[in-house]
Design brief:
With 72 residues, the chain is mostly helical. Helix content is 89%, strand content 0%. The radius of gyration is 27 Å and the shape is elongated.
């Protein structure tokens, strides 16, 4: 790469990171209490959905086992 190409590339990278920094300053970060409440809700929903998937999987597996035994 020539010096000009390097400077252009470095200039683009520099502008990109300056833009990233500017955008991060615009972010309104949530308060700690709000963040913890939202985290608790997300975790609770993830656990409930995981349990539902496990129950459906268990039921489907048992149904398949019954159907296989009927075919024997």
């Amino acid at each position: 790469m020539s010096d000009i190409e390097t400077k252009v590339r470095d200039s683009r990278i520099g502008k990109f990171f300056k833009g990233v920094k500017a955008e991060f300053k615009k972010i309104i970060w949530p308060e700690r209490d709000t963040l913890l409440k939202q985290l608790a809700v997300v975790l609770a929903v993830a656990v409930v959905v995981g349990l539902l998937i496990a129950i459906i999987d268990f039921g489907a597996q048992n149904l398949i086992d019954v159907l296989i035994r009927l075919g024997e």
